[in-house]
Structures are given as structure tokens and as C-alpha cells.
Write a structure and sequence with these properties.
With about 140 residues, the chain is of the alpha/beta class. Helix content is about 35%, strand content about 15%. The protein has a domain of about 80 residues: Nucleotidyltransferase, domain 5. Strands 3-2-1-4-5 form a five-stranded mixed beta sheet. A hairpin with a 5-residue loop joins strand 1 and strand 2. The protein is rod-shaped, with a radius of gyration of 27 Å.
Amino acid sequence: MRLKRTRPETPGVAMSPLIDCVFLLLIFFLVTTMLKKRDRDIDVALPESSSAVRLPPANDVTVIGVNREGRVFWDGVASSRGQVRDRLRWLAEQSPEQRIRVDADAEVAIVHVAELLDACQLCGLANVGIRTYDEDYNRGR
């Protein structure tokens, strides 16, 4: 009588729990990257004001910055004045009630700030404010 020789089974790796773990990690990383807030502020020395109206910070605010040299920034990215005017026109068409915050350096010539405010007014954007130094807001910076 001939006996059949049985080979020991080689252990296998179950793939379905491994795939589940990979998908969970993928979802975790996608969610955490979407929670990151964009830093739209530019490095300027803000003017001080004793009579400023305090508004809570919001993520839906469009930030236009002007540094000491008069360079203009749109949401933290350097832009030309023509690009800013074009974006303001587009913004006025899409959402005329959009909040706009102007961050201007305390040492910048007032003509640069007035130019931005005039451009906002010409486009029909009325919800515009100028950011001033606030001890509570700037403590974390």
C-alpha cells in the first residue's frame, strides 16, 4: 500500500484585513489634510487702533495684503495690481457679499491702501475691512 506524502501547508497572509487597514489609513490622511487651514497672512507690521470693531476670524474671508514696499498679495500669494483688479471683478460677479480683509503694513504709503479700497468699491464690493493689530489675535504669531 502506497501512502501519499502530504506536504505541510505554507502559511498564507490574509489580504482582506491588510487592504482594510490601507483604506482606513488613506481616509485618515485625506481627512487630516483637508482640516489644515491655509495661511493667507503676510508678514506685515499692522497699524494699531483703539476703536476697531472686533470680528471673529473666519475662513471664508478673502485677504488682500500690502507690504511695506507696496507689493500686493492675494490670499498670501504675490500678485500684480491688474491680477487683483481682475479677481475683484470676478469675485463681485460670483459673490458680491464676500468679506474682504485688507492687511496693510503700518509703514506703507496710504495711496496703495486707497487704491485697493477704490478697486473694491468700483467692483461693487462693500463688505471690506482693514485689519489692525489686536493683542489677542496676534499673540499666537
